[in-house]
């Protein structure tokens, strides 16, 4: 079946502009995660959605970052007033309800470049 | 979360076994050891996980020391497609947040 998809694949924006990144999880997966990966670095957790529970936003680096999820489907990560330090690959993952860390399926990521 | 130490990089010849070590001396009693890998320009991919017994699946084997302070991921017959960054991640089985360190950049040479 289809895996996790993300769009756009690549995004180039100017400093100060807002960007929206989209994630389509695997159908039926109730949990959805966003991570950020700077060049040559490991993944940083940003935010986690699980069903109708309040999201875990503990990894969001500043109030310029926000994310929403519509039910158990699409999620959008928004970065307002982008800065050059926001340049990174933004990865989305999803997993089924009640499962553990072994069942996180990752998308291909969105490569964001802030000029 | 337990801290991990992995070699920054390793090389292995195609067809040979690749053995990737990980130190996790502060792992707690109910934390599993998960291994993920990330091939260039792709998202991470789950490989294997274990608690204290050695594990094997179609991708790899995982050897965990008796004191659980370290583990080794074994790719028995490495191929060029195994070139990737390999992450060792201690986590509770129900954990939702994964903490990725720097990982080991494994290069398989022809």
What's the structural blueprint in terms of helices and strands?
The complex is a heterodimer of chains A (115) and B (110).
Chain A: E1 5-7, E2 10-13, E3 19-24, E4 31-37, E5 43-50, E6 65-69, E7 75-79, E8 88-95, E9 105-106, E10 110-114
Parallel strand pairs in A: 2-10
Antiparallel strand pairs in A: 1-3, 3-7, 4-5, 4-8, 6-7, 8-9, 8-10
Chain B: E1 9-13, E2 18-23, E3 31-38, E4 45-50, E5 55-56, E6 61-64, E7 70-75, E8 84-92, E9 104-109
Parallel strand pairs in B: 1-9
Antiparallel strand pairs in B: 2-7, 3-4, 3-8, 5-6, 6-7, 8-9
Q: Please identify the oligomeric state.
A: heterodimer
Record field, number of beta strands of chain B = 9
* Regions with little confidence, pLDDT below 50 for 5+ residues of chain B: none
Low-confidence runs of at least 5 consecutive residues of chain A: none
Strand content of chain A: over 45%
Number of beta strands of chain A: 10
Number of DSSP helical runs of chain A = 0
> Which percent range describes the beta-strand content of chain B?
over 45%
Evaluate the radius of gyration of chain A.
13 Å
What composes the largest sheet of chain A?
6 strands, mixed
Outline the biggest β-sheet of chain B. Answer: 5 strands, mixed
Could you spell the SSE succession of chain B in H and E letters?
A: EEEEEEEEE
What strand order characterises the main sheet of chain B? 1-9-8-3-4
* Average pLDDT, all residues of chain B: 93
């Amino acid at each position: 079946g289809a895996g996790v998809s993300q769009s756009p694949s690549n995004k180039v924006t100017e400093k100060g502009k807002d960007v929206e990144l989209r994630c389509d999880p695997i159908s039926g997966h109730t949990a959805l995660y966003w991570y950020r990966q700077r060049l040559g670095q490991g993944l940083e957790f940003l935010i986690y959605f699980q069903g109708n529970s309040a999201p875990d936003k503990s990894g969001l680096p500043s109030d310029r970052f926000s994310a929403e999820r519509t039910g158990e489907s699409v999620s959008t990560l928004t970065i307002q007033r982008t800065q050059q330090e926001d340049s990174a690959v933004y990865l989305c993952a999803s997993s089924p309800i009640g499962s553990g860390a072994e069942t996180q399926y990752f998308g291909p990521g969105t490569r964001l470049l802030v000029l | 979360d337990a801290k991990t130490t992995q070699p920054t990089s390793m090389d292995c010849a195609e067809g040979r076994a690749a053995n990737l070590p990980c130190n996790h001396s502060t792992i707690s009693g109910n934390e599993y050891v998960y291994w993920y890998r990330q091939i260039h320009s792709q998202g991470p991919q789950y490989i294997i996980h274990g608690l204290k017994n050695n594990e094997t699946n179609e991708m790899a084997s995982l050897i965990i020391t008796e004191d659980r302070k370290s583990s080794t991921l074994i790719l028995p017959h490495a191929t060029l497609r195994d070139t990737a960054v390999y992450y060792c991640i201690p986590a509770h089985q129900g954990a939702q947040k994964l903490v990725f360190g720097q990982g080991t950049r494994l290069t398989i040479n022809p």
